[in-house]
Design brief:
By secondary structure, the chain is of the alpha/beta class. The chain has 2 domains: 241 residues, 3-Layer(aba) Sandwich (Aspartate Aminotransferase, domain 2), CATH 3.40.640; 44 residues, no CATH class. The protein has 10 helices and 11 strands. Strands 1-9-8-5-4-2-3 form a 7-stranded mixed sheet, with helices on both faces. The protein has a two-stranded antiparallel sheet with strand order 6-7. Strand 2, helix 5 and strand 3 form a beta-alpha-beta unit. Helix 2 runs antiparallel to helix 9. The protein is globular, with a radius of gyration of 19 Å. The chain starts with 8 loop residues before the first helix and ends in an 11-residue tail after the last strand.
């Protein structure tokens, strides 16, 4: 029996092999493995692609969430609201920082944060919310931002599964996932829509002061070497991974379109299957289909992942 992978990384690599091999060799010959020119170039290119002022690469998506929360000045005991249906990393970092996770229900059709449940869970201790753009589709950011502003809450987007997804506001503004709140985070794990050949992540923000703090925290709390202004962590994207990501970023639109084409194919194939419900599309968000997730009638639990 042939094994079908969620993401065929071998096939993907073969299509860009010449570009990747050449670029990796260039990095090795340069010996600039940490914070080298490839990292800076990738940061600038991803910033332009997303339309966000600052992209700060880091070691992985989990670190990105932790660094974002540290930069926002959240303190032990502060409550952070997030979706009950998400990967452990979203909640894990809340606990690691001594914050209090408050889990609320998701919309059963989109699997993203239920805005009414979010607002109902707010208390005087609530300081932030982490909407998760699950499976490749943005949460209801217009309403989430409205509620957050009303209650003076920070918004940290977990866009690990939704890079290149676009959310359109009522006024017509179209903004990429991860670029709407105070700060956005993503992962470059190999199976992500934009993935490297190891671990990697990034933090996004349009706030200049916040960007300075994020950069410091990701690099041992320093801007100038050996001058440590804050408590930080060691979380850097290495040059080899940045080089790979620069190449794959150039193909991201192609990858997104291929996933959307496959999703449309599955929609057609399943349209007469009365026992299955295909993914709900939110009219305000494009869907980049990190996963194509179907439901059996009466229960959630059956997943079909596209690659």
């Amino acid at each position: 029996m042939k094994s079908i992978q969620m993401v065929n990384l071998v096939s993907q690599y073969e299509k860009i092999q010449t570009e990747v091999d050449q670029k990796i060799l260039e990095v090795v010959r340069s010996s600039q493995y940490i914070n080298g020119p490839e990292v800076k170039s990738f940061s600038e290119e991803l910033s332009r692609f997303l339309g966000v002022k600052h992209v700060i690469p880091c070691a992985n998506g989990t670190d990105a969430l932790q660094i974002a929360m540290m930069a926002l000045g959240l303190k032990p005991g502060d409550e952070v609201i997030t979706a009950s249906f998400t990967y452990i990393a979203t909640v894990e970092v809340i606990g690691l920082l001594g914050l209090v996770p408050v889990l609320v229900e998701v919309d059963p059709e989109t699997f993203n944060l239920d805005v009414n449940a979010f607002e109902a869970a707010i208390t005087e201790k609530t300081k932030a919310v982490v909407p998760v753009h699950l499976y490749g589709q943005c949460a209801n950011m217009e309403e989430i931002l409205r509620v957050a502003k009303k209650h003076d809450l920070k918004v940290i987007e977990d866009a690990a599964q939704a890079i290149d997804a676009t959310y359109t506001f009522s006024n017509g503004d179209a903004v990429k996932a991860g670029c709407m709140g105070d700060v956005g985070t993503t992962s470059f794990f190999p199976s992500k829509n934009l993935g490297c050949y190891g671990d990697g992540g990034a933090v996004f923000t349009n706030n200049d002061e916040l960007a300075i703090s994020i950069r410091q925290i990701a690099n041992h709390g320093q801007t100038v070497r050996y001058h440590h202004e804050n408590i930080g962590v060691n979380s850097r994207l290495d040059s080899l991974q940045a080089a790979v990501l620069r190449i794959k970023l150039g193909h991201l639109k192609e990858y997104t379109e291929a996933r959307q084409f496959a999703a449309a194919y599955y929609d057609e194939a399943f349209k007469n299957e009365t026992g299955l419900l295909t993914p709900k599309r939110d009219a305000k968000s494009s869907h980049v289909f990190h996963q194509y997730t179907i439901k059996t009638r009466g229960q959630i639990g059956m997943r079909c992942k596209i690659f």
